Amino acid sequence: MKPYHKIKRLGDFLLSGIGIIILLPLLLALSIIIKIESPGPVFFKQKRIGKNKSTFMIYKFRTMRIDTPKDMPTHMLEDPEKYITKSGRILRRTSLDELPQIFNIIKGEMSIVGPRPALWNQDDLIMERDLYNANSILPGLTGWAQVNGRDELPIPVKAKFDGYYLDHCGFILDFKIFCYTIRNVIKSKGVIEGKNEK
């Protein structure tokens, strides 16, 4: 492990802890809205690939109905609009649905910055990342591939960006990714909700 990764883990823990305290009113408000709007749990849990291809359960705010096909990326659904709730549409466009992953970061399953965690059944992405050893680090809430195209990127390109991050990760690149993430969230850049949008 590079020395930076040890410092990064400490930073992730501290920043996430502070984030939970600051964002607690927002987290509670969103939880109430989700619960009132549609039946089902407030949080959505899904098995993802973590460091060294271990698996963990990722947390998100639920943005879709409970009858949505499981373990399928939203951009692969033929008609995702029929499954996404009204509040879910806003949460996804603003990436607020990702906020519960702060708890994954606290637990040490994720980092603030790193490759976005693949679904457990995304074998093509997992294999492509193996080419660059990009499965060897903690996945992130945001990442280099995320700010360079997100859902718009073909899998080989996405994996190549993840490999670039592994080779060049450091405070400057992480800070750049963090700033680009804020810009992309404001613009809803790179978000694709279904096959038709591609």
Any descriptors?
single chain, 198 residues, mainly alpha, two-stranded antiparallel sheet, two-stranded parallel ribbon, 7 helices
Quick recap:
It contains seven helices and four strands, in the order αββααβαβααα. The chain has helices spanning 3-37, 86-94, 101-106, 123-130, 144-147, 155-168, 171-187; strands at 43-49, 55-61, 111-113, 140-142. The longest helix is centred in the first third of the chain and has 35 residues, at 3-37.
Uncertain spans? none
Total helical elements: 7
The coarse silhouette is globular
Computed CA radius of gyration, to the nearest angstrom? 16 Å
Strand content: 5-15%
Give the structural class. Answer: mainly alpha
The main sheet orders its strands as 1-2
Averaged pLDDT, please? 88
- Head-to-tail CA distance between termini: 38 Å
Main sheet overview: 2 strands, antiparallel
Helix and strand string, N-terminal first? HEEHHEHEHHH
Helix amount, in percent? 40-55%
Number of DSSP-assigned strands: 4
Descriptive account of the structure:
The protein has 198 residues and is mainly alpha-helical. Helices cover 47% and strands 10% of the residues. The protein is built from seven helices and four strands. It has helices at 3-37, 86-94, 101-106, 123-130, 144-147, 155-168, 171-187, and strands at 43-49, 55-61, 111-113, 140-142. A two-stranded antiparallel sheet has the order 1-2. The longest helix has 35 residues, at 3-37.
Could you outline the blueprint of secondary structure elements for this entry?
Layout: H1 3-37, E1 43-49, E2 55-61, H2 86-94, H3 101-106, E3 111-113, H4 123-130, E4 140-142, H5 144-147, H6 155-168, H7 171-187
Helix pairs in contact: 4-6
